[in-house]
Amino acid sequence: MDFNHHLSDLSTSTQSFPSDDDFRFHYNFPEFRHLIEEIARKSQSMLNQIGSSENIWGLGSSFPADIDDAYEWIVNAHDDALELVDEIVDEFHRVLKEQDMEEGEDGFFKMKDGKKCVGFFGANGKKPKVSFHVHTLRKPQYHYNLAVDNSNQPFQHVWLEKSEDGQRFIHPLEKLSVFDFVDEDNIESLVPVMPPPLECTPFKLIEDVKGLKELADKLSSVDEFAVDLEHNQYRSFQGLTCLMQISTRTEDFIVDTLKLRDHVGTHLREFFMDPTKKKILHGADRDIVWLQRDFGIYVCNLFDTGQASRVLKLERYSLQHLLQLYCGVTANKEYQNADWRARPLPDVMIKYGREDTHYLLYIYDVMRIKLFELSKESESSDDPLLEVYERSYNVCMKLYEKELLTEDSYLNLKGLRGAGFNGQQLAVVSGLFEWRDVLARSEDESTGFILPNKVILEIAKQMPVTTSNLRRLVAERSRLPYVERNHDIIINIVRHSMQKAAAFEEAALRLKEEHAAFEEAAALRLKEQNAASENGAIVQVLKMPTGACDATPQGHSASEGNGFPDKKGKKKIKVEQIVASETSDLKKPLSAKVSTSTLDANILLDLDSDSDDMV
């Protein structure tokens, strides 16, 4: 055996082990923890044997007194030590193989299906990558016995009153005016005070009802507080709020909203709805509806720093940019897309969560002053501060709507309009889309986890009618457990759907016509905007609507393009980013009369077993 080679490999591997906070983060995950514990156990055993004077490495004798015997003894002990190291390395790789992992070319250990593990050991000194999905975590829906209603019925805002005709819910903001929230009186004398560093600020992680009551007492005595949420979309149908971060002028709090899901609304709802208390959030569009969905919380009196960034026409609208611009803080966004279902929360994730609200009240003060100064400098009658409150008001007025399955839902599948499918292929898309939706509701999984959009399109394109063909088709994909367990069902759906081709021919033809018209109009608009750009005019780039997308981590959009300038300072323009006004009539829904009655999507579960603003 090449002992020196294995020893060199082991030495190289240990140098790339995560350390300090990164090690504690990875140690929360079973794959990493079990490997470390096994290595530690064998290493300790080896050290114990080395330290034994009576029986070192099984030689059966203590260290000899004669110099020649001692030399031979040391050589034998050295050989045995290297052999043990070799055994440990072999054992390490055996465990990796059992857990279906291998070392990639980039030095990261990853699943053999191509999906990288929770970051394990980075090569060449690179920091470990953080996974948005840790597949070994037990679903909190089971662990905390969370009741989830995924039925194919509209969401009921039970905490809101209904209109007289019973047709809509009335948001409490409807009884208030945006002018009730504008506070310009004391801005001229306002002197923003930078909060102390995190380590110098009192902090509490709230994991029980007692702590929640104490937080409620604190919020009852303040006039303003900052809020942020951490969310997981990938392993539930509607999504789960995993954490709530709250900061006052003097303290930081993090609420474990998985453990306390049934109690958060009870104890905190009144403070969010209180119009006399200012709530400061950044890019609150998603947070607002998540609060409604999970806790029955409706926000009144919001100042959205993301909207303020837009009114101030800042270079970027992200919280990361505001932290750097106003606070000189470089935010660590490595954990932005981490799996926030993980428990216990590692210190690095707690630190990340606190940073999102710790400086937000100070940023709020700075932005109010700048907005007020802008209004005095402006020659127009527009009030920038009022505009921010109007925008924030409109954000709060949004009400959560559950995604519902209809006979036309499949037409919103991302990538479908440009696929050029015939009626038979379109029928397969419809069948798979319906099966995926029903299964996702019953299992409380995201549709993207059950069957990604790209896989639906690929199956519809090739229409496999045997399980072997289906296996080959999805072999190169990342792990798809629900596909692996339902090969026969998927094949039956394909076969059955292919027989319904006639019902989908008209819709298929319409899709092709719409796509051709869109491409023509987009090319024309691109030509016009390029000509305007060459003449020095301002070019406005709009993103094409993506329709229904695969579930992505922390609510990220699956569309491409960010609208930032390229190295030459000119806007990059892509055809798919341009929305031509000439194609507005192409967005009308198509209708292929396909019944969904064969699958029961009305399921009530009581389980007992993430834009520019974001980064």
TrEMBL record:
<comment type="similarity">
    <text>Belongs to the exosome component 10/RRP6 family.</text>
</comment>
<dbReference type="GO" id="GO:0000166">
    <property type="term" value="F:nucleotide binding"/>
</dbReference>
<dbReference type="InterPro" id="IPR044876">
    <property type="entry name" value="HRDC_dom_sf"/>
</dbReference>
<dbReference type="GO" id="GO:0071037">
    <property type="term" value="P:nuclear polyadenylation-dependent snRNA catabolic process"/>
</dbReference>
<keyword id="KW-0271">Exosome</keyword>
<dbReference type="GO" id="GO:0071036">
    <property type="term" value="P:nuclear polyadenylation-dependent snoRNA catabolic process"/>
</dbReference>
<feature type="domain" description="HRDC">
    <location>
        <begin position="422"/>
        <end position="504"/>
    </location>
</feature>
<dbReference type="Pfam" id="PF00570">
    <property type="entry name" value="HRDC"/>
</dbReference>
<dbReference type="GO" id="GO:0000176">
    <property type="term" value="C:nuclear exosome (RNase complex)"/>
</dbReference>
<dbReference type="InterPro" id="IPR010997">
    <property type="entry name" value="HRDC-like_sf"/>
</dbReference>
<dbReference type="GO" id="GO:0071035">
    <property type="term" value="P:nuclear polyadenylation-dependent rRNA catabolic process"/>
</dbReference>
<dbReference type="InterPro" id="IPR012588">
    <property type="entry name" value="Exosome-assoc_fac_Rrp6_N"/>
</dbReference>
<dbReference type="GO" id="GO:0000175">
    <property type="term" value="F:3'-5'-RNA exonuclease activity"/>
</dbReference>
<dbReference type="InterPro" id="IPR036397">
    <property type="entry name" value="RNaseH_sf"/>
</dbReference>
<keyword id="KW-0698">rRNA processing</keyword>
<dbReference type="GO" id="GO:0003727">
    <property type="term" value="F:single-stranded RNA binding"/>
</dbReference>
<dbReference type="InterPro" id="IPR045092">
    <property type="entry name" value="Rrp6-like"/>
</dbReference>
<dbReference type="GO" id="GO:0071044">
    <property type="term" value="P:histone mRNA catabolic process"/>
</dbReference>
<dbReference type="Pfam" id="PF01612">
    <property type="entry name" value="DNA_pol_A_exo1"/>
</dbReference>
<dbReference type="GO" id="GO:0071038">
    <property type="term" value="P:TRAMP-dependent tRNA surveillance pathway"/>
</dbReference>
<dbReference type="InterPro" id="IPR049559">
    <property type="entry name" value="Rrp6p-like_exo"/>
</dbReference>
<dbReference type="InterPro" id="IPR002121">
    <property type="entry name" value="HRDC_dom"/>
</dbReference>
<dbReference type="GO" id="GO:0005730">
    <property type="term" value="C:nucleolus"/>
</dbReference>
<dbReference type="GO" id="GO:0000467">
    <property type="term" value="P:exonucleolytic trimming to generate mature 3'-end of 5.8S rRNA from tricistronic rRNA transcript (SSU-rRNA, 5.8S rRNA, LSU-rRNA)"/>
</dbReference>
<protein>
    <recommendedName>
        <fullName>HRDC domain-containing protein</fullName>
    </recommendedName>
</protein>
<feature type="region of interest" description="Disordered">
    <location>
        <begin position="551"/>
        <end position="571"/>
    </location>
</feature>
<keyword id="KW-0539">Nucleus</keyword>
<dbReference type="InterPro" id="IPR002562">
    <property type="entry name" value="3'-5'_exonuclease_dom"/>
</dbReference>
<dbReference type="GO" id="GO:0080188">
    <property type="term" value="P:gene silencing by siRNA-directed DNA methylation"/>
</dbReference>
<dbReference type="Pfam" id="PF08066">
    <property type="entry name" value="PMC2NT"/>
</dbReference>
<dbReference type="InterPro" id="IPR012337">
    <property type="entry name" value="RNaseH-like_sf"/>
</dbReference>
<dbReference type="GO" id="GO:0071039">
    <property type="term" value="P:nuclear polyadenylation-dependent CUT catabolic process"/>
</dbReference>
<dbReference type="GO" id="GO:0071040">
    <property type="term" value="P:nuclear polyadenylation-dependent antisense transcript catabolic process"/>
</dbReference>
<dbReference type="GO" id="GO:0071051">
    <property type="term" value="P:poly(A)-dependent snoRNA 3'-end processing"/>
</dbReference>
<keyword id="KW-0943">RNA-mediated gene silencing</keyword>
